[in-house]
Design a protein that fits this description.
Blueprint: H1 13-24, H2 28-35, H3 39-46, H4 54-64
Helix pairs in contact: 1-3, 2-3, 2-4
């Protein structure tokens, strides 16, 4: 049986990216350049207006933000 997610807002990857970007003091343009995407695409992701593949999410986190992506399933 599948269970609904307890809090869908907690799984908004765009908000995670935006928070990390602001904490790092980076612009959308800087993150886009470092991760090989566009500022427009970063903006769409941050506003939850774009689908995001895990591989792209990893590239943005690691190359764009200079962070390490950890994913756990408990």
């Amino acid at each position: 049986l599948s269970k609904p997610l307890p809090d869908a807002a907690a799984f908004r990857f765009g908000q995670l990216i935006k928070k990390a970007r602001l904490q790092a003091g980076l612009s959308q343009e800087e993150v886009a350049r470092k991760s090989g995407t566009s500022r427009f695409y970063i903006s769409k992701i941050e506003n939850d207006k774009a689908d995001l593949e895990l591989s792209t999410f990893r590239k943005i986190v690691e190359a764009g933000l200079g962070k390490k992506l950890k994913l756990t399933i408990e």
